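Build the 3D complex.
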Amino acid sequence: MTTLATAIQKSLDGRWAALRDEARTDLDPGRFAPPSEPLDLEGYRARIADQVQALAATGHPKRGFPKSMGGNGDLGGSVTAFELLGHADLSLMVKAGVHWGLFGGAVANLGTERHHTAYLPSIIDASLPGCFAMSETGHGSDVQSLGTTATYDPDTDELVVHTPDLRSRKDYIGGAARDGRMAAVFAQLVTGGESHGVHCVLVPIRDDSGATMPGVTIGDCGAKEGLPGVDNGRLTFDQVRVPRTNLLNRYGDIDEHGTYTSPIENQTRRFFTMLGTLVRGRISVAGGAGAATRSALTLAITYAGHRRQFAPPGGDDEVILLDYRVHQRKLLPALARSYALQFAQNELVSLMHDVQSAGDAADEHQQRELEARAAGIKAVATTHATTTIQTCREACGGAGYLAVNRLPALKADTDVFTTFEGDNTVLLQLVAKGLLTDYRDAFGDLDTFGMAKFGARQFAGAVIERTSARGLIQRLIDSAPGRDSEKGPTDRGWQLDLFEDREKHLLETLALRLRKAGKPGADLFAVFNESQDHVIEAARAHVDRVILESFVAGIDACEDPAAAQTLARVCDLYALSSIEADKGWFLEHGRITPARSKQVTAAVNDLCASLRPHAQELVDAFGIPREWLGTELLAPLA
Amino acid sequence: MTTLATAIQKSLDGRWAALRDEARTDLDPGRFAPPSEPLDLEGYRARIADQVQALAATGHPKRGFPKSMGGNGDLGGSVTAFELLGHADLSLMVKAGVHWGLFGGAVANLGTERHHTAYLPSIIDASLPGCFAMSETGHGSDVQSLGTTATYDPDTDELVVHTPDLRSRKDYIGGAARDGRMAAVFAQLVTGGESHGVHCVLVPIRDDSGATMPGVTIGDCGAKEGLPGVDNGRLTFDQVRVPRTNLLNRYGDIDEHGTYTSPIENQTRRFFTMLGTLVRGRISVAGGAGAATRSALTLAITYAGHRRQFAPPGGDDEVILLDYRVHQRKLLPALARSYALQFAQNELVSLMHDVQSAGDAADEHQQRELEARAAGIKAVATTHATTTIQTCREACGGAGYLAVNRLPALKADTDVFTTFEGDNTVLLQLVAKGLLTDYRDAFGDLDTFGMAKFGARQFAGAVIERTSARGLIQRLIDSAPGRDSEKGPTDRGWQLDLFEDREKHLLETLALRLRKAGKPGADLFAVFNESQDHVIEAARAHVDRVILESFVAGIDACEDPAAAQTLARVCDLYALSSIEADKGWFLEHGRITPARSKQVTAAVNDLCASLRPHAQELVDAFGIPREWLGTELLAPLA
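Done.
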């Protein structure tokens, strides 16, 4: 690694740099890399189950649980270590995420001391493999409408968990098909004939010998596009009885007389509060997607740096792929976006750490901001992963299609990230809803718009704030030149202003459109639906701005001048390639002139050319140990 | 099927409609569908090898060879039948394409009677499984620089085939790893110490017992992202001797005295003529990509037509996915593009049939047009496949990720289509080069630009003409309203004019930029490279126009008024969503006003809504037998 690459890595590694180094050693590929030979489904699942045990032995999973529950209480470190797993086998990452993050997270965050004492020790050491049984065959995004019921039977002081129909079958449940012993089952809680909305109940699904529990039917989702080591399955419950105390009762409880109580009166608010505690899953998926994308970029850019094709006129040496403009344009703006997302992810993890470490003292406002930002970054990071890994595969031609060169698995394994832990389209709607809640104050009567009613089910009630480094961003914007100034498009204030202005315009016009829903007799669904593309556009614009601001803050925090200078150019490439990609909007709305638009394109080309000599350093700075990526792509042919 | 769907299918089925019906019966999924249970690599390869034999027995492969060579001489029918195979197992499609299309095509088109007599019967009945050994580890796109040599030894009257280094190893060769007995090997032909450029030589690689021939080393590419049933491998030749007569000698021959002769003096021209005869491979890949994309759209649109999520305000029934605007926008413009591409593909196949059926009497001009159009349609159709199948997967959420629902295999199998049979980026450059050759006449001195020299190696010398239905298109353009007329964006003349105008502008400005290369001392590579993104843009604009014109011609030929009316709206959606996707360019170049740009977006939304009730009919009209797609996605849950 060059001095420059080392300095940039320090900047990218961020707050948990020391832990990253530790994980780089602990997660060595001898133990956690994908198999070098094809395995059948059962062989792959068995391998991953063993790796989960080995991972437990490293002690890393302890970080994700508070000290009071037998953990290390390093939540940010936990998510960061998980991110590093994204360079190992992604089946392991997801399997670990389901067990410790989702199942363990449900017990820790939705349960109370009796569950913590009874289960967390064996969850932390992975001796009680668990499942997170939320999605159903008929309900994925709309969790509030789940069909599974958990009905209290006062005669036996038990909860009866039941699957009323095929649509209510638990589906795609990681760990269900082979290894899971206990499931955190999300179900409509019913006492005395009254429903209290979705709650979570612990249901044993297999006994210690691995035999399926009575009343439980387990199906196997079989082969999937990717993640072959994750044993996704289906769970059907036929009047399965569990003790009343198996209800995870932090936000809703039943006493021994069958009376339901909750610290949160409003059912919808209770539901979103419960879901909100599970935000770490989305943040973790965004992190893992980032790691996988950086693996792919490291492979494709390293390959493009030595692979040659076609001799130029008058030359004997064939041209190196990365010297072609079109090849630069395929890979370098994607690289810049990965940098931007890494800074945004670091900031998000840091925010999560601070909010969640505060426990019950956490500020609700900050909690809402965390949820919205997690949703937005997750959506953008996973879409970026799918697009970029695809580009990397194509940039490596036939070599990129061979399993031995890792890109196929990176692609197939991460593909589901765009639709699990929240479908990206639904998540972006949630982001927009949060932003509109902010605007309500300004518009007065916005709480009457139909989205509020329809959205109550489709959207969480999140609130979004301006991101950090506010003072710096404001100074840069204030010093920005006018719209058609002589200053080129690399002026940071101009870029920031443009991103912010687009978001504001989209939100304001969206809010105006949605006011129609407030009119008497308005068709609320029609009003919402006719604005739906606008909703998504506004959310994307918001997330783009948050990401840019994170990048700017990250550069500001970088102490090495040479690294900061290079990062500034990468940031230019992120900002300008984003503007170029959306130039239709900026031109349509008179935000840039045609002349400026052409300048932006020229600047993207120039930035690609000027960063090209640093391309290898920029991927080296991701700090992915070479042996983790040991493929034929990395070295030129002898 | 409704009457409307039946009428539209007739239009889409085109010239080889009868054959399509026949193939729909012959290729029944009981024999040619993907396996319902996971198979290991060897099991999958064995299955596909057996299916190839079954396919031979249907007689379809005969169509691809002239009557004079023992075939049926129905070239267009052959490519159409191959396209239908794209609905079956894509491993079978590719394996069949390699054997009959590429290997058989090389023998038929590059060989002469002695090869036809000796080999074609056993190629047609698949008793001599063959490979097409063109790509090398170090040379994929740049075929002219292949490293393998075939050196004439006058002492024994033999050709000595040799792999000088690792970069020259034949790589990714379908059929090499397991089944191939003979390979059509592309190599630099050398006689008396002089090289005559790339030629093709038949080299046995396994004997009748399946044992590897002496001097040949066979490697296995192993598992790939997709196409598990295709046994891609590597071939290394250590001074392998074959009779002189194994040279496929239609365009270059060695007599018994070792003298080289060719009907084409110029080596580069000879090379491109030889490659040109192999154009059917690209057309076939475009066709297969189209079929796979239509399968995916049928699955995703059918699913979206019954899958519900989230209840609207005041309603109990949850909303059907396809009623959401964002979901319509994901699927319906892609559907419209698939329609457009199908008409363009039909036209291309028809052109190919007429040109190639003419044999040596074929017009060279038409041959060049065919090559360029094949390159362009292949690039656009395969990129569309990758993007659209991805969208379809995501639109089906978790269900789309399950292997049993077909989308994973459709995605993985077709992914390599963007980079094999010509990398799409290289193919688009070839298209642009062909267009510029046209412009040379107008600009006079364009033959001095560096691209001509650099391009001589990178580009084939293709010439492109306006597509068919010229009179009709011209009438529509002539009657188009002015740029800011009151007529809405659905005026066909306006759309055609806009597409044509963009292409013309991009080509003219490109030609001007490239003139710099003509200056003394110009850095030819730099001039080319700095225009490379412009080159690709021009080519894409050209292909978009060709596709639109094909669609317009297809509607004109449709005899059912209701079908024609629906097709016209689908065509509007194709044209307007394409304009919307590139609105940045149109606005930047003053081709549309901001107001018109917003009208286009509104029109796309309106078209999505108005076609939504016909969505199921529009996928039914693809005529894919239901049982070929038998997955859980097709029917609502009980």
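Chain B is about 55% helix and 10% strand.
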